[in-house]
Amino acid sequence: MSMEETPVRLNRSPGPTYREILDTDRVKPPRHFYEEKPFYDGSDSIPVERYISREFHELEKRHMWRTTWQMACREEHIPEVGDTFVYEICDMSFLVVRSAPDEIRAYWNFCRHRGRQLLTQSTWTPVLRCPFHSFTWNLDGSLAYVPTEWDFPHVDCDELGLLSVGVGRWGGFVFINPSPGGETLEEYMGEMIEHSAPWHFETRFVEAHVAKIFEANWKIVEEAFMESFHVAATHPQQMVRLGDVNTQYDCYGNFSRALHPSGVPSPLLKWTPTEQEMLDNMLDIREGEDAIIVLPEGETLRSFAAIVGRDQLRPAIGDEADTVSDAELIDAMEYTLLPNFHPWAAFQRAVYRFTPYGDDHERSVMEVMLISPFSGERPKPAERILLGPDESWTKPGVLGITGRILDQDSTNIAAVQRGLRSAPPAGLEVTLYQESRIRHFHKWLMDRIDAGRQRDRTSS
Amino acid sequence: MEGSVQGSKQGSKQGSKQSSKQDSSRGMRHPLTLALYELCGDGVRVTDGQKVGVYDSTGRWVSGDRFLVCPNLCGWIGDGPREPSTLKDHRRFRNVVLKQTTDGTVGS
Fold first, then answer.
1. Counted domains in chain A
2. pLDDT digits (tens, 9 = 90+) for A348-397
3. How far is CA A284 from each of CA A289, B2, B106, rounded to the nearest angstrom?
4. Helix, strand or coil for residue A352?
5. Which of residues 47-106 of B touch A (CB under 8 A)?
């Protein structure tokens, strides 16, 4: 079955749909926001082994990480010719190199003489020289120098260039694919390029970059951010002004998205908050405290937040701000480009990435970048701050209230891993609609692994 | 965009959600149960109907009545800011220009 066919009518939450909420807005969003792409591929449980098995991790490495497009860095991390970024995934290491002013190349990070990594940290370098014996390559990957060349009569040095991998650029991000197999990044992303074009991610800079180690498989961490079903239990303080169970989930070929309506109450509430109460909740005004902003007459929280958002954008994008829809200014809209790249849409600033921690299938790293518009000279990107498993996202002091919300999410993650480790073998029973992005993710992953196994069988 | 500031919060349509300032300490009602979670000296005081108990910020019982509480709201209150929120805490709204309301309390 195609990943985009939905043969059954999936049950949906009571309360207004996302499209009905959009209908109340003053400035309407682009057409794709009205499009629904629900995903259904059966109701099978998800095998626990996918999270705890070393064997499954090896399958992911061989058949997924080695063959898929993945975000390596931002272009601003390598602005000058010679800037080189070391990107590592599992036990694989790559060099992403600014080889010419408008050219970026990437190579497997190993010396073709004895295999030493050419670089162990990101840096600027005029050439890529192995510190072991001084074999040297030009930034374009061609061989520049062979020490004691007389002792390599058996080697055709013209054939000894660095082994390159696929490079794609989008929105200021640099992606690599160790084995692209003819598929460009643009083809891989498909409609996501059109969806995201108005958001100009390439005109932003990394204002903050915080990463945290989790004692859990990378998919457990990522999947914690693919649904808002968990809001009522994990983030109850948000329910007053966040549509949770009426979030819209759409799944496309290699990406999916969640459109969470904001400025509306959760359909689970048994009472109806006023627009002012929703604003107070958004501003963390507590019981009995004075409001710090009173909504102007005739405005809803959605309309007011949209007006404020346009004013905030105006210095960066000028009058184009007037064309930005209310939804793009207030709603929480997340995209996931599989396997692990998770930019918040529109003018939200957060970008998440989820990777195994080194080659450890039971530890992972979640990164949060805040990419912000700027005017004038491009600021330098923030250095990455790495937090340990027990450290709070609030510690660096750069994520604002998002850090506290991420701390709530974080309380679940290692406990899920421990639960899966300790439980008897069983499948996980996830919802059909609210967790459809997780089902889509697993279908995508298993399709890749199955295809890879088939290739292995054919070649042997 | 101009917003305004006045001395007291608009009344809630939900009568049971009313609370006076003097007996509230960064308190928040659970949106589903309407139980009140407030900071207190040794943790988070949770008031649910006639039951009142104190729990730590992981939701573990400390003293008073024992009943089911939300550990995440205990954490939100117990580990959260002690001081009331201000505009500068909120990136989205920090540039809102405030004006005085008719009762003339606060504004800029």
1. 2
2. 899 999 999 999 999 999 999 999 988 889 999 999 999 999 999 999 99
3. 10, 19, 19
4. strand
5. 70-73, 75-76, 79-81, 84-87, 89-93, 95-96, 98, 101, 106
Query: Which tens digit of pLDDT belongs to each residue from A1-42?
Result: 455 555 567 899 999 999 999 999 999 999 999 999 999 999
CB neighbour burial string for A6-18, b if at least 16 within 10 angstroms, e if fewer: beeeeeebebbeb
ipTM: 0.90
Q: State residue B20's pLDDT score.
A: 42
Testing the interface with A: which of B18, B32, B69 to mutate, by most A Cβ within 10 A?
B32
Containing structural domain, residue A365: 18-64+204-459
The verdict on A90 and A209 lying in the same domain is no
Do A54 and A152 fall within a single domain?
A: no
Which residues of A are less than 8 Å from B7 in CB distance?
A: 290
Burial class (CB in 10 A: 0-12, 13-18, 19+), B91: middle
Give the pairing type, strands B43-48 and A255-260: unpaired
Q: What is the CATH number of the domain that holds A117?
A: 2.102.10.10
CA nearest B16 in A: which residue?
Answer: A271
